[in-house]
Write a structure and sequence with these properties.
Hypothetical protein af1432, 11 helices
């Protein structure tokens, strides 16, 4: 009987912590981060479709397809580890080299699936998306935006816990998010992000 380790390997995402250079009041692994990104990306997609409704030439996206890409967006870090953002984007040479490493990591993970070219191709696209169409490029932008919003929310949570370690990260991430100039992102940041700093009583309407 053949045994395949792909999904068991994905389960190890819980052991890869983010923000390795920062003093965290609570550690965050890439497994829980991926859930946050998937939830946010799904919401951004719904907002995107609402804003694009009736606009000539606008691309309408499948929220569940976007969510699938979000869930898998950091899986290659099981092999590569979480490279801190300042290093990953320090210059074009490092960024391009890391993308190649990510691609090789994706192929390594896919090799843990049955030797069926259709199955492997399906997962390789999720792990290392090819930006070959307007739809795929838009999905990439949505997932990237959701990833940055999740990072911003992490900073908000840390500040709410009394930590000042993430203050500069919050400011720089906020600027990066604004620079994306995406109406769905701006709407989410304005209407849905502020409550992440609320107490439970305030969230539930008991703190009036």
């Amino acid at each position: 009987m053949e045994e395949y380790g792909f999904y068991a390997m994905l389960d190890r995402m819980q052991y890869i912590n983010r923000w390795g250079l920062m003093r965290n009041s609570r550690t965050e692994n890439i497994k829980e981060h991926s859930f946050d990104v998937a939830v946010i990306a799904h919401a951004l997609c719904i907002l995107h479709n609402k804003f694009c409704d009736g606009v000539s030439g606008a691309i309408i996206l499948d929220p569940y397809k976007v969510q699938s890409y979000s869930i898998y967006h950091d899986c290659t870090e099981i092999i590569t580890g979480d490279l801190p953002t300042p290093i990953k984007y320090r210059n074009k040479e490092i960024t391009d080299a890391y993308k190649e490493v990510e691609r090789e990591a994706a192929e390594t993970l896919v090799s843990l699936l049955p030797e069926d070219k259709d199955i492997r191709a399906e997962y390789l696209e999720l792990l290392a998306p090819g930006l070959t169409s307007e739809e795929s490029i838009m999905i990439h932008r949505i997932v990237k935006a959701a990833d940055r919003i999740a990072a911003y929310i992490k900073c908000v949570r840390e500040e709410s816990s009394g930590s000042t370690e993430f203050s500069s990260a919050k400011e720089s991430t906020g600027r990066t998010i604004k620079a994306m100039k995406m109406p769905e992102v701006d709407y989410f940041m304005e209407h849905f992000v502020p409550p992440y700093g609320f107490t439970l009583d305030k969230l539930s309407g008991k703190d009036d």
